[in-house]
Amino acid sequence: MVGDKSMLVQTCDRLGSIISDKEMIIILGQNHLREAKRLLKSRKVHILAEPIGRNTTPCIGLGAIYARYLGCRKAIAFLPADHYIGDPAAFTMAIEQAGNLAESGGIVTIGIIPSRPETGYGYIKRAVSDRKDHPFYEVSSFVEKPDLKKARAYLASGDYFWNAGIFVATHETILNEIKLHLPDLYKGLLSLEKVLGTGSFKKRLGKVYKGLESVSFDYGIMEKTRSPIFVIPCDCGWSDVGSWESLHELKAGDNEGLRNFSEGESILIDCRNSLVSGMSGRLVACLGLKNCVIVDTDDALLVADLHRSQDIRKIVEYLKRNKMEDLV
Description:
Blueprint: H1 7-15, E1 25-29, H2 33-39, E2 46-50, H3 56-69, E3 76-78, E4 84-85, H4 88-102, E5 107-112, E6 123-126, E7 137-143, H5 148-157, E8 160-169, H6 171-181, H7 183-193, H8 201-210, H9 217-222, E9 229-234, E10 238-239, H10 244-251, E11 261-264, E12 266-269, E13 275-278, E14 284-287, E15 292-296, E16 301-305, H11 313-321
Parallel strand pairs: 1-2, 5-9, 11-13, 12-14, 13-15
Antiparallel strand pairs: 3-8, 4-10, 5-8, 6-7, 6-8, 7-9, 15-16
C-alpha cells in the first residue's frame, strides 16, 4: 500500500476522471477476489477472477472478450493496478491521447520519460523522427532490461522510454492479434465468450485456463505483430513499485539527509538510505546500516542490498527449486 488507500482503489480513483466505474473491468487472481470485493463493494465495477495465473496475454484477451460482451465500442486501456502515479492528470491525458490514436488502428503503449539510468525496467525505443515534442511516435523496438552502461546511454539519447506495460487498443485489434499469433488461446477465448453471463462461465473458465500457455503480451503479441505500434511519452511521476528499492524511493523522507524508511516494530540508529519493515511483531533494531533492505514477517526474514532488490527473484527461484514454495 502506498498512501492511505490500496493501489487497486487508487487506480480506480485515478481513472474516474475519464471513465465511469461501470466501464472498469478488473481481472485478478482468485486469491485476491475476496479482498477486492471488499475494497470495491460500493462501486459498480466488473470483477473477474482468473483461476490460475497464465501471464498477461490471456488476461488481456479475457478483458477484450468481456469488453466486447459489455458492448464497448471504443479503445480499451489495459494497465496494471499496482503502479504509483505522482501526476494523475498527466497520466490520464496520455491515456486519452492513446485511446484516440488506437481507434484508428494499431496498438498504443505509454512510454514513461526516464528520470535516471534504471536497470530494473524494460525500455521502448522510439523510431527516429525529426519531429520535436510530438505527442506520439512509432515504436522502433522493445528492449530488455539493460546494464548500467546501456541505461546511461539510453537516458542520454532521449530516444528511449521506460516500458510501463500499459497498452491501449480496440478489442477487435487485440483479438485479431491473438487469433493470428496465438490461435489456441483465441479458440479458448471464443469458448469462454459463448458462456459469458451464464452459470457455466466459472466452470468453463477453469477448464480453459488449465490448457492455456503462459505467455506475456510483450512476447506473445508485441514482438510479433506487424500492425502499427505507437508510443506516447508521459512524464507523470510513475513507479511500478515492483521492488523494495522503488518503494524506498517513493516513501523515504529526507530524515536530515539519511533517506531512511521504516514501518512496524523497528529502530534505526546511524543508518542511511535503508528500508526496514518489521511486521512480525518482533522488534527489528538496526545499527550502522547503509543501502539495506530488511523485511521481517511471521514466516521469513529478508536481508538484502537495497540496490539489488530487483534480484530477489533469485531467492524465489531457489525456494521453488528446493520445494519451499510455501515461503514464496
